[in-house]
Each structure stands twice: as structure tokens, then as C-alpha cells.
Design goal:
The structure holds two protein chains of two kinds. By secondary structure, chain A is mainly α. In chain A, α3 runs parallel beside α14, α5 packs antiparallel against α6 and α5 packs across α12. The two termini of chain A are 21 Å apart. Classes of the chains: A mainly alpha, B alpha/beta.
Amino acid sequence: MSQAVKSASGGTSSPLASLMPDASKMHRLSALLTLVLLIIGFSLASQSFFSVNNGLTVLLQTSVIGLLGIGLTMVIITGGIDLSVGSVLALSGVASAMVIKAGLPVIPGMTFGVIVGAACGAINGLVVTRLRIPPFVATLGMMLMARGLALQLTGAAPISRLGDAFGVLGNGALFRVVEMQPNGFPKVIFPGIPYPAILLLLVAIAVAYMLRRRQIGRHIYATGSNEEAARLSGVRVDHTKLYAYVMSGALAGLAGNVLMSRLVTAQPSEGVMYELDAIAAAVIGGASLSGGVGTVSGTLIGAFIIGILRNGLNMAGVSAFIQQIVIGAVVIGAVWIDQIRARQ
Amino acid sequence: MSNTPLVQMIGIEKHFGGVRAVDHVSLDLYPGEVVGVLGHNGAGKSCLMRILAGAMLPNEGEIRVGGKTVTFADPNDAREAGIETIYQTLALADHLDAPSNLFLGRELKTRFGNLDDARMLEESRKVLARLNPNFKNLSDPVSSLSGGQRQVIAIARAIYFDTRVLIMDEPTAALGPSETAMVSDLIRQLRSEGIGILLVSHDMHDVFDLCDRVVVMNKGRLVGAHGIDEVTKDDVLSLIVKGELPADWSARNLEAAQ
């Protein structure tokens, strides 16, 4: 959908119509409002919630779900689903750690991990388009295979002692100001902008540009909107789907490297159920599981809603079990509101 | 009418399991000619049209465009050969707006390879205005448009590009009287520009009004191909229903010739 065109020509019908946002903008607006209300609510409930340090914590936690969610958004717009991202995240992180442990420098090592993620995505895409296996089943299979491979390769043991350089991506920050105190301890004057947050922003901008301004993005929407029509119009739907799954796998690989770098340890059991948070982020952000609808900005808002819910409930001392109940209810609520609106 | 056919379909066969959907059918189409393709539902006419549109591969047979043998692996190949199709389902992506649908698969791009939405909007406005001067909702998703407007987009998409052969599958089924008249005018205009048109229709009035020839399919076979002035509506009905002309047809035609 050409958002730029939409806003430019919104004034042609009537002045009132140009003020009325369309359905997908409306959804994002309501999600954004929910986000603001959550922040206000949690700030009142806990004094330490609304602080720079906690803000950075939320940013870090959200960046992993955000990266997974952006990848999933592309797949969901094509009308598919990718249940494997949590496991691919673990396999990619483990793959990076293993080659770095074997002596490869950090940057090529992490690149290798991302390529492993993309390869998992490519297998997903080929199974969906060539073997004609429904995405739910194909990526469920990959979910088990990638997790099994990560556990098998490591003997289910974490890989640690990966060196300081491995931790930079997850723990470093831009513009961090640290002052050495007379007592020899460093004092953080400004914590800086964490690298994961910068990475998330860059990926979000790149993918939003791709979806909105590039042919492949237009074809991703068309494929999910009406696959047969897209095919008859000359869209290579198999190629388009494959692209979406590869991107989802690669972004899961990137998220895996961020997470493992943050822990400075590769955990083969990391990221279990992350796919559900990522799907929830996309759906809360307005992506339709029946395809054709979804935006990067919406998914980002969704990821922050989930990140803040988890963080705020933690800060308010709510148990992890109750948190699951709340997030489950939020996802159902978001889809329900979407359904009501679609029927009008 | 020139002597080289735009398109020749020779001995086309398509079967699904044991069912012969298209059974050894040959069909020529000349420039500036409107050929009505008739038959019951399931007679094989849609299947034959899909083969020519590149949406389906035949099991046997040959397609020639301008005398040269071609193979259409997908709809893009057919469109590159100048064969455009208006499907009965319209084949529109509901969540996209009119320009996105019009240029789907053939998007205009800027120098940097970005989508040129401004130019696509401008071009769409021009071609849509030619078909329907009241068409304004260019940036709404096409799901919110009326049946007639959606039809107009599907037609615009088929005639905007360098079209030589146009396949129209029930182009007026979803339209009101004034829009139907518009489509009829358009067909005459395209014919005068030398475009060959295959018109799949159930509407006998449209067929006799617009077509130069009719071909009739029955159970996958081509049972008749006649100039429009050689047959009456009853003759064509007989071909559709029974797969053969009425017994007195040749006698009548002989009389007419004398």
C-alpha cells in the first residue's frame, strides 16, 4: 500500500475525510495510545519504572522481540507464519559462538550466525513453496529441528568465555559517558544509546523502506492480499514468499547474536516461546494473520507494549505466571478489537 | 483483416486425471477481430483461455504468436507477448489501491529502483478517466470499491500496456447497463485499433452485437467455428447444448448462398 500516495491525496475527497485516518493507521493509533497509558499506569504504580536506567532495560529487552517481530511481520503479510524464530535465534547464536570459539574474529563470526539464520529461513521458504507444506507445519518442523541442532551441537551446555569483543553488540552503547572516580570505580554519567536499540532502529527503517518503496515490498502485500491475483498479474509469489522467510530467518539470527552477546554466553536453550511474543507484537501492531495487512511501525509499537507489560509487571512485583495470563489476554483483546473494526 | 494470425492455438490438449478438459482444440485469431468463445460451464473455454494467458500449461499442442512458436511458462510470458487477460474474478489484490493493482507485477520505478507511486497514480488517473470519468477513489483499497469500479480497474490494467490480444472472460457480468455499454464501445474501439479480442460470454445479445466470429466448445471439443452471419442464435444454442448444428442448417445456408 502506498502510504505516501495516500496521505498526499487524502485531501481530494473532503476536508473531514483527510482528518480521518484509515483503518490501519487507526489501529496503530489505538496501539500507541495503549502504550502511553501503560507507561503512565506503571509509572504511578512503581517509582523506579519511569527512570533512564529502566527505560534502557526496556529498550534492550524490546530490541530482541522487535527484531523477531519485524521479520515475522513480512512473513505474516504474505499470509504465512514463522514459528521457528525462537529456535533459529538459539541456533544462530550458538553457531556464531562456536566459530568465534574456534578462532574466527567476532564480526565474521556473527555474520556467519546471521547466515545460518537466513539458511534456516530459506529451508522454511522452500518447504512452503516447493513441497507445498502449510507454513504452520513447515516452520513448526524447523522450530524442532533448529532447537534440536543447537542442543546437539553444544551438548546442551552453554558456550562461555567468548571474550570481551563478543559482548560489545549486546552491552555497548553509543555516546556513553563514563568518568573515573577518585576511588577507582567508574561512574556512568550518561548510559548512552544501547547498540541493540540502534540496530533495531536501523533494521526497522530498512524494512519499512523495503515494504513501502520497493517492488518486492509491494509484491509481499499483493501475495498476502490475493495470492492467485498476484500470480496472474505476473508476481513471482514463490520467490516473494521465499524472500520473506529468508528475511525472517536472518533477523532471527541477528536477534540471536544480540541476545547471546548481551549474556556473553551462547545458550542453546535461549529463546523458547519467543516466537509467540513476536507474533503477538505483530498482531497487536495491526498485522492480519490472514495476510495483506501489517506495518513495521505497528509491530514496533506492539513489541514495546509487550516489553513494557513484562517489565512493568515485574517492577510491580506481579508473578511471571500472572504475566503470561495478562499477555495472553492482551493478544486476544487486540485481535478482537481488530475483528470488530473489520466488520464495520 | 490481415493474413497472418495474431495468435494460433494448434491441437491444444489439457487433461486432469482422466478428464479431457480441452480436447485437441485449434483456434486462430486475426488482428482487428472479435471472436466469441461460447459453451456451457465446464465446456473447457475457461481452461483454453487460461492456457493462452499463460496461467496453465497444456499437455499437448502448440501456440504461435505472429507465426512464431512460443511457450508460456507463466502469465508474465503471455503478457510480454502482448496477450492480456481480464479474468472473471478480476484478479485484484483487495488491500492495494487502484494504481498498485493496475501496475501490479509491472511497477514503474524511479532511477534508483524505488516505486514511482506518483507517476503510477498519474498514469492510473489518465487511463481510468478514459474508462470512467467519475473514478475518484484512486488511493482507497480496491476492496472498498463497487463492482463496476473494480471491473474498470481490471480492464484498465489489460489495455494500458502494449496489448495485441485481449482475452475477456465475462467482462460485463458484474456491470450495470451504462457500464456494459461502455465496455461494448471499448471493444469496438480496440477492434478498430487492430487488437484481437477473445470474448468469453454467456450473453447471446452481446456476442451477436460485437463478434465477427463465434467458436463453440462442448465437452472439451471445439464443435463449431462460424462467421457471425452464417448462424442464428438458435444455431449457436444448438451447438452449445447438443454439440451440433440443427439438421436444416446446411440447407438453409445453401439457400442463402444462392
